[in-house]
Write a sequence for this structure.
């Protein structure tokens, strides 16, 4: 690998698109018909959408008829996190209980009044407190619970199936944001036991701007839809379908399913190697949630005294793209609400870095990461020595 070739280690933010997906998008862009039209051109566009729907459904073990395409994971979560999500003929929940480490589009994108939303606390590993949740579920009426499969910052996996059992025993409904997990670990709607699941294509090497809501069955519905108009997507999402993006999503889903087992094993090996290099070079480094079950491609860490902004610039100048693992606003890195919920001290949380690998990541990339990390750590320790 050439020294000036950039290395991308920020797959949890977005994945580079696979060539097969690009080809599918181009082919779909050449389809001239509207998928709602009955002529041959319209039927060709419809066929592309339905093929994609089948592929996305297969990725999560769902029925194709229960896959609803949206503009992305954020819209999908905004659509379903509503008091109008219900079992057919029933009433919706009056309260939303969401994991404290959920993505902002869950914590801030729901449609419940502020007084009717509570955050489920986590332990130091970022795993939700099941005892708290069980107690809260038994204290009030049926709730809607939202719990992600995998955290975008730390990679921590949540006990979704166990939570689903508790929620259903209490008469509630459960949604899971599977955006980060899809294509990285096996997912199956029935095994998870959830009522609704949401996805985003660009996290699994598909196009940006396309996502999906997946309902467990015809008995689950959202009465209050966000985008009203025509009858597209069973009336859940009006507007002419983005055929090219949907087609790309379908191909990305099929490829992710085909490569899932061997990619998970390959990436876990590379992840562990990169993580070990950090601990070797900086013995005082802290790996976040080391005792929790995590995505095979993700680890987050901090080195005492190293600010995230400084580290990100150093890695970027060396040709390596990482993330701070925290939300960015107006160009400033903010401390992570995820690490706050885990009880990480502010000084350490402000230095959090996230490494997330993907389909293009190689062993050579991990070696380059370690070499750059060595320089960053050496400069940090020199500054500490000079200041002493």
């Amino acid at each position: 690998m050439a020294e000036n070739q950039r290395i991308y280690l920020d797959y949890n933010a977005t994945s580079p698109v696979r060539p097969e997906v690009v080809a599918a998008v181009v082919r779909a862009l050449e389809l001239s018909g509207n998928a709602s039209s009955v002529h041959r051109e319209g039927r060709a566009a419809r066929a592309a959408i339905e093929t994609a729907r089948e592929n996305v459904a297969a990725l999560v073990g769902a029925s194709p008829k229960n896959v609803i395409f949206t503009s992305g994971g954020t819209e999908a979560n905004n659509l379903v996190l509503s008091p109008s999500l219900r079992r057919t003929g029933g009433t919706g929940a009056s309260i939303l209980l969401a994991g404290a480490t959920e993505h902002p589009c869950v914590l801030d994108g729901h449609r419940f009044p502020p007084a009717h939303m509570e955050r489920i606390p986590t332990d130091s590993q970022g795993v939700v407190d099941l005892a708290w949740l069980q107690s809260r579920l038994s204290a009030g009426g049926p709730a809607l619970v939202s719990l992600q499969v995998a955290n975008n910052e730390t990679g921590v996996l949540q006990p979704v199936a166990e939570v689903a059992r508790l929620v259903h025993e209490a008469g509630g409904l459960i949604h899971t944001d599977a955006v980060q997990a899809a294509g990285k670990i096996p997912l199956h709607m029935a095994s998870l036991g959830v009522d609704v699941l949401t996805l985003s294509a660009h996290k699994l090497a598909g196009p940006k701007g396309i996502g999906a809501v997946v309902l467990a069955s015809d008995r689950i519905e959202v009465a209050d839809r966000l985008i009203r108009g025509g009858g597209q997507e069973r009336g859940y999402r009006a507007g002419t379908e983005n055929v090219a993006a949907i087609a790309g999503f379908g191909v990305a889903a099929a490829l992710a399913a085909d490569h899932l087992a061997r990619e998970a094993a390959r990436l876990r090996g590379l992840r562990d190697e990169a993580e070990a290099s950090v601990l070797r070079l900086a013995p005082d480094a802290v790996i976040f949630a080391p005792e929790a079950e995590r995505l095979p491609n993700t680890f987050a860490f901090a080195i005492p005294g190293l600010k995230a902004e400084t580290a990100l610039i150093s890695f970027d100048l060396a040709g390596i793209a990482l993330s701070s693992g925290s939300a960015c606003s107006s160009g400033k890195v903010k401390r992570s609400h995820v690490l706050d919920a885990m009880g990480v001290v502010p000084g350490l949380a402000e230095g959090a870095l996230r490494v997330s690998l993907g389909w293009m990541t190689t062993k050579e990339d991990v070696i380059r990461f370690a070499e750059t990390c060595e320089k960053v750590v050496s400069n940090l320790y020199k500054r500490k020595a000079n200041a002493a």
About this structure: The radius of gyration is 22 Å. Residues 19-254 form a domain with the Aspartate Aminotransferase; domain 2 fold (CATH 3.40.640.10). The first strand starts at residue 7 and ends at 8. The mean pLDDT is 95.
